[in-house]
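Researcher: Here's a chain I'd like modeled. Treat it as a single chain, no partners, no ligands.
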Amino acid sequence: MLQALDAAAVRQWCLAARDALTAARAEIDDLNVYPVPDGDTGTNLQLTMTSVADAVTAAGDDMAGVAKAMAHGALMGARGNSGVILSQLLRGLAEVLGEQETAGPEDVQRALVRAAELGYAAVATPVEGTILTVAREAAASAAEIGPSSLAAVVRAAAAGATAALARTPDQLPQLKAAGVVDAGGRGLCVLLDALEQVVTGIAPAAAAPVLLVPRDRSGLATAREAGSDAFAYEVQFLLREATEDGVEVLKEQLAALGDSLVVVGGDGLHNVHVHVNDVGAAVEAGVEAGRPFRITITRFADQIAAERPPVMNEKPTGRRVVAVCAGAGLTELYERAGAVVVDGGPTANPSTAELLAAVHRAGACEVVLLPNDGNTVNVAAAAAEAARGEGCSVAVVRTRSVVQGLAALAVADQERPFADDVAAMAEAAGSTRWAEVTTAVRESMTMAGVCRPGDVLGLIEGDVVLIGSEVEDVTRQLVDRLLAGGGELVTVVTGDDAAGDLGERLGTYVEKSHPTVEVVTYEGGQPHYPVLLGVE
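Model: Modeled as a single isolated chain. Structure tokens:
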């Protein structure tokens, strides 16, 4: 039985956690009752931890090196929202564990508390009944026992996490209605159980039940990541001569003013980014913390995407777009428009490292990231943060569909200042309504009623609104619904399993049924979704 954690023990835990998540992946994925193919929580956690395991395996034998590798591997391999949150939790652990060669019980208690703090800090609007709650309760349970052995601390943490997981359905009505516990919280329990086994040498007791009502999948609506429209301005600046305490105060002040807060850096230089309504208060907070410079302010609301008159002898900006998409046709379409393409999308979420590599591959001083999937938005934000730490100017336009990405790319203009270009792209993406047609892979209760495997589903901006049996019929109904709210242009993108001349037939339908609306069709070749729609 271990009395303290050293570099070898931390490495052993990371490998054991990877293996445990690999074994539990399908079980955790099964907690995601959203009925369409998607990047599931278990898979994303397992892939994130695989990156961690690879990183610590290649690290040296000192605690600081292994802890740093654990945090860096998590950041680079984070996939999906759950992976990004896990990377923050591991970063918190690494900060404390890396302070000395061996970490005793009190060090582990502090590390768990720090992990929970950073986990909550990573989410703009934390929701109780999620992995965050489980992390906080695990840390609290470990701290409550006071001075004790390492085994007692990790047992208390694992037990606290299990108890918190069992309570998640009482905190989130969607979970209770679906008869499940939180998937991300279950994944964290798996990690803490692995830590307990590494420390004690004894397998933990049976886990808490994950399906409270076997196979009853009614009522769960997974929250989709989206940019908030509550704040009208983007404020960004570099900050010199700020102390660490001053930076923490700045974070608190800016968090109270807005969202999309990112503060990265150290050693006297930080990059600050936030969305707010009160620009003056945001800049004043920077002045109180240190010396802000290179201040840029962009107004998102009412931003006019007009061309700027050419300026004589103006140097090229060296700007590129990095976009995530799947399918040969879509890849060609994006590349023809000048974008660097990262292969990915639902069921194949790219990692932070893959997006960061694409930013480097773009070879430009200014880069716009188009995630084109709700589950990739936070990963793109993490990649942008890492790139900014390297001195690059990187912005994320929070596109949740490839058709939104196409709309954003269509208005990109290197002749505009970077901030103006990002604002115009964000406005174009935000004004594009999007829909998808896919096939249900499991039985579930949706907004449109009960769907069963094989049913054709019509989704508008992530929500199931139609259930049918024919792809073309469901698509026509989606088009009519989208255009009921107005529109001038319909974009139709057919997938790799679209039948024959489906795109042509759908284009003809739009022209005849809505003669004042323009329609364009593309053969995208994307998997899982025979039709994607966009209306501008």
